[in-house]
Amino acid sequence: MTLWTGPLQVQVAPDEVWRALGYRAGSVPSRRVADLLASLWPRAISLLQPRGGLRLVDLEQANGTGMPAPSAPTALAVCTIGGELEEACAGSQAAGETLHALLLDSIGSAAAEAAADALNALVCDEASRLGLATEPRESPGYGAWDIACQPRLLELLPAAELGVSLTPGLMMQPRKSVSFGVRLTDRPVQAGGRCARCNLTACRRRRLDPPSTLETV
Amino acid sequence: MAHEELLAGLRQAVLDCDEPRAARLAREALDTGMPALRAIDGGLVPGIQEAGRLWDEGEFFLPELVGAAGAMKAAMAVLQPALAGGGSRELGRIVIGTVQGDIHDIGKSLVATLLAANGFAVSDEGADVPVERFVTRARELDADLVCASALLTTTMVQQRTLVEALRAAGLRARVMVGGAPVTPAWAAQIGAAGFADNAVAAVAVARGLVRS
User: Fold this and answer.
1) Contact B67 A170 (CB under 8 A)
2) Domains in chain A, ordered, with CATH?
3) Taking the alpha carbons of B129, B134, B136, B141 in that order, is the dihedral positive or negative?
4) Which of the residues A35, A86, A99 would you substitute to probe the B interface, choosing the one with the greatest number of B C-beta atoms within 10 Å?
5) From CA B212, how far away is CA B203, in angstroms rounded?
6) What residue ranges do the domains of chain B occupy?
7) Which CATH superfamily is domain B3-83 in?
8) Which residues of chain A does B62 touch, with a Cβ-Cβ cutoff of 8 Å?
9) Which residues of chain B are within 8 Å of residue A20 when distances are taken between CB atoms?
Protein backbone atom coordinates (compact mmCIF):
# COMPACT_ATOMS: atom_id res chain seq x y z
CA MET A 1 0.00 0.00 0.00
CA THR A 2 1.33 3.41 -0.90
CA LEU A 3 1.82 5.39 2.23
CA TRP A 4 2.16 8.74 0.57
CA THR A 5 2.37 10.28 -2.89
CA GLY A 6 2.28 13.92 -3.90
CA PRO A 7 4.21 17.12 -4.55
CA LEU A 8 7.37 17.83 -2.56
CA GLN A 9 8.44 21.16 -1.15
CA VAL A 10 12.09 21.62 -2.05
CA GLN A 11 14.59 24.37 -1.42
CA VAL A 12 17.51 24.22 -3.84
CA ALA A 13 20.64 25.60 -2.20
CA PRO A 14 22.99 27.49 -4.53
CA ASP A 15 25.93 26.00 -2.63
CA GLU A 16 24.76 22.53 -3.66
CA VAL A 17 24.71 23.64 -7.29
CA TRP A 18 28.25 24.97 -6.99
CA ARG A 19 29.26 21.73 -5.38
CA ALA A 20 27.68 19.74 -8.24
CA LEU A 21 29.78 21.85 -10.61
CA GLY A 22 32.97 20.84 -8.81
CA TYR A 23 33.60 23.94 -6.67
CA ARG A 24 34.69 23.40 -3.11
CA ALA A 25 34.87 25.57 -0.01
CA GLY A 26 37.12 28.51 -0.79
CA SER A 27 36.70 28.15 -4.57
CA VAL A 28 35.91 31.32 -6.44
CA PRO A 29 33.68 31.07 -9.53
CA SER A 30 34.34 33.69 -12.18
CA ARG A 31 31.99 36.64 -12.23
CA ARG A 32 30.70 35.65 -15.66
CA VAL A 33 29.77 32.14 -14.51
CA ALA A 34 28.21 33.43 -11.30
CA ASP A 35 26.17 36.03 -13.23
CA LEU A 36 25.01 33.44 -15.72
CA LEU A 37 23.90 31.07 -12.97
CA ALA A 38 22.03 33.92 -11.28
CA SER A 39 20.29 34.82 -14.54
CA LEU A 40 19.25 31.21 -15.23
CA TRP A 41 18.12 30.51 -11.67
CA PRO A 42 14.53 31.91 -11.64
CA ARG A 43 13.50 30.12 -14.83
CA ALA A 44 15.18 26.88 -13.76
CA ILE A 45 13.40 26.91 -10.41
CA SER A 46 10.08 27.65 -12.11
CA LEU A 47 10.50 24.51 -14.23
CA LEU A 48 10.84 22.17 -11.25
CA GLN A 49 7.93 19.83 -10.59
CA PRO A 50 9.16 17.92 -7.55
CA ARG A 51 6.96 15.04 -6.51
CA GLY A 52 7.41 11.65 -4.96
CA GLY A 53 5.89 8.58 -3.42
CA LEU A 54 6.82 6.21 -0.66
CA ARG A 55 5.60 3.08 1.04
CA LEU A 56 6.60 0.80 3.86
CA VAL A 57 7.05 -2.85 2.95
CA ASP A 58 7.58 -6.00 4.96
CA LEU A 59 10.78 -8.01 4.91
CA GLU A 60 9.66 -10.36 2.16
CA GLN A 61 8.77 -7.50 -0.21
CA ALA A 62 11.94 -5.65 0.69
CA ASN A 63 14.02 -8.74 -0.05
CA GLY A 64 12.28 -8.93 -3.42
CA THR A 65 13.75 -5.56 -4.40
CA GLY A 66 17.28 -6.86 -4.00
CA MET A 67 18.07 -4.24 -1.37
CA PRO A 68 20.97 -5.57 0.72
CA ALA A 69 20.03 -6.55 4.28
CA PRO A 70 16.64 -4.82 4.47
CA SER A 71 14.78 -4.27 7.70
CA ALA A 72 11.25 -5.01 8.78
CA PRO A 73 9.70 -2.70 7.81
CA THR A 74 11.72 -0.99 5.06
CA ALA A 75 10.74 2.29 3.43
CA LEU A 76 10.90 2.41 -0.37
CA ALA A 77 10.63 5.68 -2.24
CA VAL A 78 10.95 7.38 -5.60
CA CYS A 79 10.93 11.06 -6.50
CA THR A 80 11.50 13.23 -9.53
CA ILE A 81 11.78 16.88 -10.46
CA GLY A 82 9.89 16.22 -13.72
CA GLY A 83 11.09 16.65 -17.27
CA GLU A 84 10.74 20.36 -17.98
CA LEU A 85 14.16 21.45 -16.73
CA GLU A 86 15.67 18.55 -18.63
CA GLU A 87 14.00 19.78 -21.81
CA ALA A 88 15.34 23.29 -21.26
CA CYS A 89 18.78 21.83 -20.77
CA ALA A 90 18.52 19.81 -23.97
CA GLY A 91 17.34 22.94 -25.79
CA SER A 92 20.39 24.88 -24.63
CA GLN A 93 22.63 22.06 -25.69
CA ALA A 94 21.02 21.84 -29.12
CA ALA A 95 21.52 25.59 -29.50
CA GLY A 96 25.23 25.19 -28.79
CA GLU A 97 24.92 26.90 -25.40
CA THR A 98 26.93 24.28 -23.57
CA LEU A 99 27.63 26.41 -20.51
CA HIS A 100 23.92 27.17 -20.09
CA ALA A 101 23.20 23.45 -20.40
CA LEU A 102 25.85 22.57 -17.83
CA LEU A 103 24.49 25.06 -15.30
CA LEU A 104 20.86 23.98 -15.84
CA ASP A 105 21.87 20.34 -15.48
CA SER A 106 23.64 21.08 -12.21
CA ILE A 107 20.60 22.95 -10.86
CA GLY A 108 18.61 19.85 -11.77
CA SER A 109 21.04 17.56 -9.96
CA ALA A 110 20.87 19.67 -6.81
CA ALA A 111 17.06 19.85 -7.08
CA ALA A 112 16.75 16.06 -7.43
CA GLU A 113 18.87 15.58 -4.31
CA ALA A 114 16.76 18.18 -2.48
CA ALA A 115 13.62 16.29 -3.53
CA ALA A 116 15.13 13.04 -2.23
CA ASP A 117 16.01 14.81 1.04
CA ALA A 118 12.43 16.05 1.37
CA LEU A 119 11.04 12.57 0.75
CA ASN A 120 13.60 11.09 3.13
CA ALA A 121 12.36 13.51 5.78
CA LEU A 122 8.84 12.07 5.37
CA VAL A 123 10.33 8.60 5.89
CA CYS A 124 11.98 9.86 9.08
CA ASP A 125 8.66 11.29 10.28
CA GLU A 126 6.95 7.96 9.71
CA ALA A 127 9.76 6.08 11.43
CA SER A 128 9.54 8.43 14.36
CA ARG A 129 5.78 7.86 14.57
CA LEU A 130 6.53 4.12 14.80
CA GLY A 131 9.20 4.70 17.45
CA LEU A 132 11.96 3.70 15.06
CA ALA A 133 15.10 5.35 13.68
CA THR A 134 16.26 5.41 10.06
CA GLU A 135 19.51 4.38 8.46
CA PRO A 136 20.92 6.39 5.52
CA ARG A 137 19.10 5.94 2.22
CA GLU A 138 20.52 3.65 -0.43
CA SER A 139 19.80 3.47 -4.14
CA PRO A 140 20.06 0.71 -6.75
CA GLY A 141 23.31 1.03 -8.67
CA TYR A 142 25.24 2.19 -5.63
CA GLY A 143 27.15 0.00 -3.22
CA ALA A 144 25.90 -3.58 -3.10
CA TRP A 145 22.42 -2.86 -4.53
CA ASP A 146 22.51 -4.04 -8.13
CA ILE A 147 21.07 -1.65 -10.71
CA ALA A 148 19.35 -4.67 -12.27
CA CYS A 149 16.97 -4.57 -9.27
CA GLN A 150 15.61 -1.16 -10.29
CA PRO A 151 12.47 -2.51 -12.06
CA ARG A 152 11.51 -4.61 -9.02
CA LEU A 153 11.83 -1.56 -6.78
CA LEU A 154 9.76 0.69 -9.04
CA GLU A 155 7.05 -1.97 -9.38
CA LEU A 156 6.31 -1.49 -5.70
CA LEU A 157 6.10 2.29 -6.01
CA PRO A 158 3.70 4.72 -7.77
CA ALA A 159 6.35 5.40 -10.44
CA ALA A 160 3.91 5.57 -13.35
CA GLU A 161 1.67 7.95 -11.44
CA LEU A 162 4.67 10.21 -10.91
CA GLY A 163 5.67 9.98 -14.57
CA VAL A 164 8.82 7.97 -13.87
CA SER A 165 9.74 5.14 -16.21
CA LEU A 166 12.81 3.06 -17.01
CA THR A 167 14.80 2.91 -20.22
CA PRO A 168 15.96 -0.50 -21.51
CA GLY A 169 19.30 0.39 -19.86
CA LEU A 170 17.45 0.75 -16.53
CA MET A 171 17.90 4.48 -16.36
CA MET A 172 15.07 6.48 -14.87
CA GLN A 173 13.25 8.98 -17.02
CA PRO A 174 13.09 11.87 -16.25
CA ARG A 175 16.81 11.56 -15.59
CA LYS A 176 16.64 13.77 -12.51
CA SER A 177 14.79 11.16 -10.48
CA VAL A 178 15.93 9.28 -7.39
CA SER A 179 14.76 5.90 -6.12
CA PHE A 180 15.86 4.61 -2.77
CA GLY A 181 15.26 2.39 0.22
CA VAL A 182 15.65 3.18 3.91
CA ARG A 183 16.02 0.62 6.68
CA LEU A 184 13.96 1.38 9.76
CA THR A 185 15.56 0.20 12.94
CA ASP A 186 15.15 0.23 16.69
CA ARG A 187 18.94 0.35 17.11
CA PRO A 188 20.81 3.65 17.55
CA VAL A 189 22.05 5.03 14.22
CA GLN A 190 25.53 6.45 13.88
CA ALA A 191 25.41 10.22 13.50
CA GLY A 192 27.13 12.18 10.75
CA GLY A 193 26.75 12.59 7.02
CA ARG A 194 26.55 9.73 4.58
CA CYS A 195 30.13 10.25 3.44
CA ALA A 196 31.36 10.29 7.03
CA ARG A 197 29.88 6.83 7.50
CA CYS A 198 31.03 5.41 4.18
CA ASN A 199 34.45 3.82 3.85
CA LEU A 200 34.58 4.17 0.06
CA THR A 201 37.27 6.85 0.18
CA ALA A 202 38.00 6.82 -3.56
CA CYS A 203 34.39 7.70 -4.47
CA ARG A 204 34.26 10.68 -6.84
CA ARG A 205 31.05 11.82 -5.15
CA ARG A 206 32.69 11.95 -1.75
CA ARG A 207 31.92 15.18 0.05
CA LEU A 208 34.97 16.27 1.96
CA ASP A 209 34.10 19.65 3.37
CA PRO A 210 30.76 21.38 3.51
CA PRO A 211 31.13 24.44 1.30
CA SER A 212 30.60 27.81 2.84
CA THR A 213 28.68 30.33 0.78
CA LEU A 214 30.94 31.08 -2.15
CA GLU A 215 32.15 34.51 -3.00
CA THR A 216 32.79 35.62 -6.53
CA VAL A 217 35.40 37.91 -8.02
CA MET B 1 44.27 48.20 -32.53
CA ALA B 2 47.79 46.81 -33.03
CA HIS B 3 48.15 43.14 -33.83
CA GLU B 4 49.86 42.32 -30.53
CA GLU B 5 47.08 44.07 -28.68
CA LEU B 6 44.47 42.12 -30.64
CA LEU B 7 46.17 38.82 -29.87
CA ALA B 8 46.32 39.67 -26.16
CA GLY B 9 42.65 40.67 -26.34
CA LEU B 10 41.66 37.39 -27.97
CA ARG B 11 43.56 35.42 -25.34
CA GLN B 12 41.88 37.37 -22.55
CA ALA B 13 38.42 37.07 -24.11
CA VAL B 14 38.81 33.28 -24.05
CA LEU B 15 39.93 33.37 -20.42
CA ASP B 16 37.01 35.66 -19.55
CA CYS B 17 34.55 33.27 -21.27
CA ASP B 18 33.41 36.31 -23.27
CA GLU B 19 31.93 35.03 -26.53
CA PRO B 20 30.78 38.39 -27.98
CA ARG B 21 34.18 40.02 -27.29
CA ALA B 22 36.06 37.04 -28.75
CA ALA B 23 33.96 37.16 -31.94
CA ARG B 24 34.31 40.95 -32.23
CA LEU B 25 38.10 40.84 -31.81
CA ALA B 26 38.37 38.00 -34.33
CA ARG B 27 36.50 40.13 -36.86
CA GLU B 28 38.71 43.09 -36.03
CA ALA B 29 41.81 40.95 -36.50
CA LEU B 30 40.71 39.94 -40.00
CA ASP B 31 39.76 43.54 -40.84
CA THR B 32 43.25 44.71 -39.97
CA GLY B 33 44.77 42.12 -42.29
CA MET B 34 45.89 39.61 -39.69
CA PRO B 35 45.98 36.05 -41.11
CA ALA B 36 43.33 33.89 -39.45
CA LEU B 37 45.92 31.31 -38.51
CA ARG B 38 47.92 33.92 -36.59
CA ALA B 39 44.83 35.01 -34.67
CA ILE B 40 44.20 31.39 -33.74
CA ASP B 41 47.74 30.37 -32.86
CA GLY B 42 48.74 33.68 -31.27
CA GLY B 43 45.51 34.54 -29.44
CA LEU B 44 42.96 31.78 -29.09
CA VAL B 45 45.24 28.79 -28.55
CA PRO B 46 47.29 30.47 -25.80
CA GLY B 47 43.97 31.44 -24.18
CA ILE B 48 42.56 27.92 -24.15
CA GLN B 49 45.91 26.49 -23.06
CA GLU B 50 46.04 28.94 -20.16
CA ALA B 51 42.48 27.93 -19.23
CA GLY B 52 43.65 24.31 -19.12
CA ARG B 53 46.60 25.27 -16.95
CA LEU B 54 44.35 27.15 -14.54
CA TRP B 55 42.09 24.09 -14.38
CA ASP B 56 45.09 21.92 -13.57
CA GLU B 57 46.00 24.30 -10.76
CA GLY B 58 42.48 24.29 -9.35
CA GLU B 59 41.78 27.94 -10.17
CA PHE B 60 39.34 27.18 -12.99
CA PHE B 61 36.45 24.75 -12.71
CA LEU B 62 34.37 23.04 -15.36
CA PRO B 63 32.09 26.04 -16.03
CA GLU B 64 35.06 28.35 -16.66
CA LEU B 65 36.63 25.77 -18.93
CA VAL B 66 33.41 25.31 -20.88
CA GLY B 67 32.96 29.08 -21.03
CA ALA B 68 36.48 29.49 -22.40
CA ALA B 69 35.77 26.84 -25.02
CA GLY B 70 32.56 28.68 -25.92
CA ALA B 71 34.46 31.94 -26.46
CA MET B 72 37.02 30.12 -28.58
CA LYS B 73 34.21 28.58 -30.64
CA ALA B 74 32.62 31.99 -31.20
CA ALA B 75 35.91 33.42 -32.47
CA MET B 76 36.60 30.34 -34.59
CA ALA B 77 33.24 30.76 -36.31
CA VAL B 78 34.51 34.14 -37.55
CA LEU B 79 38.01 32.96 -38.43
CA GLN B 80 37.22 29.57 -39.95
CA PRO B 81 35.96 30.83 -43.34
CA ALA B 82 39.17 32.85 -43.74
CA LEU B 83 41.20 29.68 -43.18
CA ALA B 84 39.90 28.03 -46.35
CA GLY B 85 42.89 27.43 -48.60
CA GLY B 86 45.09 29.13 -46.08
CA GLY B 87 45.97 26.05 -44.13
CA SER B 88 44.19 24.08 -41.48
CA ARG B 89 45.11 23.39 -37.88
CA GLU B 90 42.90 20.35 -37.46
CA LEU B 91 44.56 17.95 -35.03
CA GLY B 92 42.45 14.97 -35.98
CA ARG B 93 38.93 13.80 -36.72
CA ILE B 94 36.81 12.47 -33.88
CA VAL B 95 33.41 10.79 -33.71
CA ILE B 96 31.87 11.03 -30.24
CA GLY B 97 28.66 9.81 -28.65
CA THR B 98 27.00 8.15 -25.68
CA VAL B 99 26.43 4.46 -26.30
CA GLN B 100 23.11 2.84 -27.14
CA GLY B 101 20.72 2.46 -24.25
CA ASP B 102 22.28 5.39 -22.41
CA ILE B 103 20.60 8.78 -22.56
CA HIS B 104 23.16 10.82 -20.59
CA ASP B 105 24.36 13.62 -22.80
CA ILE B 106 25.90 16.48 -20.88
CA GLY B 107 29.25 14.92 -19.92
CA LYS B 108 29.87 13.69 -23.43
CA SER B 109 28.94 17.14 -24.80
CA LEU B 110 31.47 18.80 -22.50
CA VAL B 111 34.18 16.48 -23.80
CA ALA B 112 33.12 17.25 -27.38
CA THR B 113 33.21 20.99 -26.68
CA LEU B 114 36.72 20.88 -25.23
CA LEU B 115 38.01 18.62 -28.00
CA ALA B 116 36.67 21.04 -30.61
CA ALA B 117 38.12 24.04 -28.77
CA ASN B 118 41.50 22.35 -28.78
CA GLY B 119 41.60 21.89 -32.52
CA PHE B 120 39.93 18.57 -33.27
CA ALA B 121 37.20 18.22 -35.88
CA VAL B 122 34.43 16.66 -33.80
CA SER B 123 31.30 14.95 -35.01
CA ASP B 124 28.98 14.70 -32.01
CA GLU B 125 26.43 11.95 -32.61
CA GLY B 126 24.49 12.64 -29.41
CA ALA B 127 23.23 10.05 -26.92
CA ASP B 128 21.80 6.54 -27.35
CA VAL B 129 24.01 5.97 -30.39
CA PRO B 130 23.94 2.47 -31.93
CA VAL B 131 27.30 0.85 -32.60
CA GLU B 132 26.48 0.73 -36.32
CA ARG B 133 26.19 4.51 -36.39
CA PHE B 134 29.59 4.95 -34.72
CA VAL B 135 31.10 2.64 -37.32
CA THR B 136 29.36 4.33 -40.25
CA ARG B 137 30.44 7.80 -39.16
CA ALA B 138 34.00 6.66 -38.47
CA ARG B 139 34.15 5.26 -41.99
CA GLU B 140 32.59 8.34 -43.61
CA LEU B 141 34.95 10.73 -41.84
CA ASP B 142 38.01 8.45 -41.87
CA ALA B 143 38.08 9.22 -38.15
CA ASP B 144 41.25 9.04 -36.10
CA LEU B 145 39.35 8.46 -32.91
CA VAL B 146 35.95 7.28 -31.71
CA CYS B 147 35.00 8.41 -28.21
CA ALA B 148 32.26 6.49 -26.42
CA SER B 149 30.68 7.50 -23.14
CA ALA B 150 28.63 5.23 -20.85
CA LEU B 151 27.16 6.22 -17.50
CA LEU B 152 25.86 2.91 -16.22
CA THR B 153 27.26 -0.55 -15.72
CA THR B 154 24.32 -1.81 -17.78
CA THR B 155 25.35 0.24 -20.82
CA MET B 156 29.16 0.20 -20.65
CA VAL B 157 29.19 -3.23 -22.29
CA GLN B 158 28.32 -1.38 -25.49
CA GLN B 159 31.84 0.05 -25.43
CA ARG B 160 33.22 -3.45 -25.84
CA THR B 161 30.84 -4.10 -28.74
CA LEU B 162 32.02 -0.87 -30.35
CA VAL B 163 35.71 -1.81 -30.11
CA GLU B 164 34.96 -5.18 -31.66
CA ALA B 165 32.78 -3.69 -34.42
CA LEU B 166 35.40 -1.14 -35.46
CA ARG B 167 38.01 -3.88 -35.54
CA ALA B 168 35.73 -6.14 -37.58
CA ALA B 169 35.07 -3.29 -40.03
CA GLY B 170 38.81 -2.88 -40.52
CA LEU B 171 38.77 0.80 -39.64
CA ARG B 172 41.86 2.56 -38.35
CA ALA B 173 39.97 4.63 -35.76
CA ARG B 174 41.08 4.04 -32.19
CA VAL B 175 38.65 4.10 -29.30
CA MET B 176 38.67 6.24 -26.18
CA VAL B 177 36.14 5.41 -23.46
CA GLY B 178 34.84 7.30 -20.44
CA GLY B 179 31.90 7.66 -18.07
CA ALA B 180 31.16 7.23 -14.37
CA PRO B 181 31.60 3.43 -14.07
CA VAL B 182 34.44 3.21 -16.60
CA THR B 183 37.96 2.53 -15.33
CA PRO B 184 41.39 2.15 -16.96
CA ALA B 185 41.14 -1.57 -16.22
CA TRP B 186 37.86 -1.81 -18.14
CA ALA B 187 39.37 0.13 -21.05
CA ALA B 188 42.31 -2.29 -21.16
CA GLN B 189 40.02 -5.30 -20.82
CA ILE B 190 37.90 -4.36 -23.85
CA GLY B 191 40.86 -3.29 -25.97
CA ALA B 192 40.14 0.46 -26.00
CA ALA B 193 43.20 2.52 -26.84
CA GLY B 194 42.44 5.27 -24.34
CA PHE B 195 40.54 6.17 -21.19
CA ALA B 196 39.74 9.55 -19.64
CA ASP B 197 37.78 10.32 -16.50
CA ASN B 198 37.19 14.00 -17.23
CA ALA B 199 36.95 16.40 -20.15
CA VAL B 200 40.40 17.92 -19.73
CA ALA B 201 42.06 14.53 -19.52
CA ALA B 202 40.14 13.51 -22.65
CA VAL B 203 41.85 16.27 -24.63
CA ALA B 204 45.31 15.17 -23.48
CA VAL B 205 44.58 11.51 -24.18
CA ALA B 206 43.15 12.34 -27.62
CA ARG B 207 46.27 14.34 -28.46
CA GLY B 208 48.44 11.42 -27.47
CA LEU B 209 46.38 8.90 -29.43
CA VAL B 210 46.34 10.84 -32.70
CA ARG B 211 50.10 11.47 -32.47
CA SER B 212 51.07 7.88 -31.76
Assistant:
1) no
2) 4-197 (3.40.109.40)
3) positive
4) A99
5) 14
6) 3-83, 93-211
7) Methionine synthase domain (1.10.1240.10)
8) 21-22, 102
9) none
**Amino acid (1-letter code) at residue B144:** D
- By residue count, chain A amounts to 217
CB neighbour class for B27 (10 Å; exposed up to 12, middle 13-18, buried from 19)? middle
pLDDT score at A131:
92
- CA A6 to CA A4: how far, in whole Å? 7
Q: What angle do CA B151, B157, B162 make, to 5 degrees?
A: 105
Reported as a pLDDT band with limits 50, 70 and 90, residue B107 is confident
Q: How many CB atoms lie within 10 A of CB B77?
A: 14
Residue type, B51: A
d(CA B90, CA B142): 14
A101 — contact with chain B (CB < 8 Å)? yes
Residue of chain B whose alpha carbon sits nearest to that of A169 = B101
Query: Three-state SS for B53?
Result: helix
Q: Does A93 touch chain B (CB under 8 A)?
A: yes
Helix (H) / strand (E) element for B207: namely: helix B199-211
Round to whole Å and give the CA distance between B35 and A136.
Answer: 61
CATH of B93-211, one of 3.40.50.280, 1.10.260.40, 3.40.50.20, 3.40.630.30: 3.40.50.280
Residue of B79, B82, B116, B104 whose CA lies nearest to B178: B104
- Please state, as a whole number, how many other Cβ atoms lie within 10 Å of the Cβ of residue B115: 26
Give how far B75 is from chain A: nearest CA, Å: 14
Contact B17 A29 (CB under 8 A): no
Q: Which residues of chain A have pLDDT under 70?
A: 1-2, 188-217
ipTM confidence:
0.79
